Amino acid sequence: MYNARAYAAGSATARLASTTIARRTPTETDVQIEVLYCGVCHSDLHQVRNEWSSVMPTVYPCVPGHEILGRVTRVGAGVKKFKAGDLAAVGCLVDSDGTCPECKAGLEQFCHNATLTYNAPDKHTGGVTYGGYSESVVVEERFVLRVPEHLNPAGAAPLLCAGITTYSPMRHWEVGKGKKVGVVGLGGLGHMGVKFAHALGAHVVVFTTSPAKKEDALRLGADEVVISRHAGEMARHAGSFDFILDAVSAHHDVNAYINLLRRDGNLTLVGAPETPLAVPAFGLIMGRRSLSGSPIGGIAETQEMLDFCGMHNITADVEVIPIQKINEAYERMLKQDVKYRFSIDMASLKAE
Length: 352
Ligand code: NAP
Ligand code: ZN
What we know:
single chain; Quinone Oxidoreductase, Chain A, domain 1; Rossmann fold; 2 domains; seven-stranded mixed beta sheet; six-stranded parallel beta sheet; 11 helices; binds NADP nicotinamide-adenine-dinucleotide phosphate
């Protein structure tokens, strides 16, 4: 074991603050990574504040962060794909059993024995896993990704969650040319969804509650922008969408979007509000529409997404912050005051 500097929350109401955590010494199959940038996901905020207490209660101290990009500093003797000095990334998963049908299908995100990057039982330490708001991470090689070197590293970090979470359902539901696709909520996830849907060739409509984001939405790749609080604008799109990605972090009227689906259209929830959403049966029955959800993505698909981003030069639009601004960043995220992802420059942790 060794000590690593990190930022942690001590309780659901505490501010995140500097601390020291114990990391395992890399085993035979581990990769040790110096974290250069870590994206700030709304899930970090939900988890730190224990807003998902009924599903994933938070264990404190909690070190969040699952959009991790860094340089390999050390590898175990059995590691084949990485060497010291390589650029490497880690997303929301750090382990799975590797033997169940889900793992064999490359869908580790559905493995019942998968280990999340933070706030999950850590089989090595006997404690809980700690995320990327830290100077280093130690991760099993199987869960370490390659990042195209030419991508901006601060903007590439958010691909590890916001990227894969929006890319995966779009691939599953065959977003592409000739499809009309909606993206609800232009935040960290939503703005990646717009970039992917556009790059995949779809006709993209952004639904936002923030009129000030209209110009940005068009710049990011939207063909149309609808201010969702305007009933008239919403009504114009009734029954017309093949696919809608809902990336809203708070309670909202999901039926308003189900009604915009055409026959056999699908709405996929990736946003995970604290409270249940009401779904009237007739919105789905009429039109044989479907409502589904989607969690992150498997490791092979995450690599595919990173390679796709390399080819199309896609990264997140980020505001780089020092770790000392993390509490303020959470408040600003709640006020929609970020374009469109905070990315922490982890070199700032050295000042602690
Ligand atoms: P974010 O950057 O805060 O974006 C959320 C967006 O939702 C906002 O920008 C805003 O967009 C919209 N919004 C916020 N409050 C709203 C309200 N009261 N009514 C209507 N719209 C509202 O968050 P994020 O990091 O993209 O994450 C979004 C959600 O996805 C979170 O719940 C997060 O936990 C979840 N998530 C899920 C997965 C998964 O695997 N499924 C992975 C990562 C994150 P406008 O200003 O455009 O309206
Ligand atoms: Zn996330």
